[in-house]
Amino acid sequence: MGNHLLRPAPGPYRRLFSASGATAFTAGSLLARLPMGMSGVSLVLMVAGTRGSYALAGAVSAVGLGVTAVVAPLIARLVDRHGQARIAIPAVVLSVSASAVLVLCVRREAPDWTLFASYAATSCAPNTGGMARARWTHLYRHDPAARHVANSFEQVADEVCFMLGPVLAAFLCTALFPEAGTLVGAVLLLSGVLLFCAQRGTQPPAGSGTARGRAPLRTAGMPGVLLTFVCTGVVFGALEVTTLAFAEARGHPGAAGALLGLQAAGSCAAGLLLGLRAPAASLPRRFARCTAAMAALTALPLSARDLPVLACCLFLAGCATAPAMVTGITLVQSLVPEDRLNEGMTLAVTGILTGVSAGAAVAGWTAEHLRPGSGYWIPCAAATLAALTARLRATRGEGTAPAGCPRQGAGL
């Protein structure tokens, strides 16, 4: 009895996964989310490598993101209304089929318009991250502390997928063949969603078939928060491309993967530690502080003149992105109605993907026309805009909620 009483209590993350089925659906969601970070780089390398045109690759990517911005929230709304498995499985089958058609069009040298059409059709892939958060909310609907830990874990998972996805895609497309990144991403997406949806015991109940809450885009405070997500996506995309160009200019192109891995490691560590801390200030103020820290640390790579210094700067910059993302997503969850939660989360992810594509495109142009490392001004400017937007929201008091008193479904 004495030994039992002296045994330390399990940590918050261990307690989180004690729920039946939690580990299985988390594994599925991680597999399904990794292709989100792979898709952009995979597409550019595949199209540019086979058609010899970065302009065509960028145009196809831009059209795909435009379609995603429209279709993804609609898919999320259907998930909220009719249930996860009922919508996610047919949606992912359609998305993966479109990826296969895209690869065939590239291999068979089909007309350019077929690339636009097939890549646009991949946009119906479900937002597994939002569905995973809904499951945590359902499992721990009476435990706000567990929802806080789950929210931090999910943001770290998103962060790692967005950071490591491009690295994996670049490796597959360059080490194997140009279409490898797209094919592997499709396999991961399909297997991940099927594994995720197979865990029916953790699936939250479907809605009534209607969403009565205010649309997320019409919710007070949401447009400003979504702008910060676009800016954060620009930070991700520009850092990736500029780091690749910087390493190549220094004669060590293979080091880019390790450098981006350090950035992801810093982000992952900061996010996990954040989940262990109880929130102290209101959400808008925490968001303003986190984005200000991101703006300050994202400026560090500007001072780098060699790879070792750049490695340290990227690690520190990564430490700032996860807390900003965790707090921003939590703010979204506190703003949108409960019956539109998955839709609101999908809008946030769409903002990030849009920013990643824009940041990568601008950084690519900068790498070709200016000196190596000049592209680090792009994430610095984007993070500063995010910090100013968050500061303005905090000053106005938009989305204010009592600290430590989350509403049902907020996750924090």
UniProtKB/TrEMBL annotation:
It holds the Pfam family MFS_1. It comes from the Bacteria. SUPFAM superfamilies: MFS general substrate transporter. The chain crosses the membrane at residues 16-34, 54-75, 87-106, 183-202, 223-247, 253-274, 308-332, 344-367. The keyword Transmembrane helix applies. Keywords: Membrane, Transmembrane, Transmembrane helix. This is MFS transporter. It comes from Streptomyces physcomitrii.
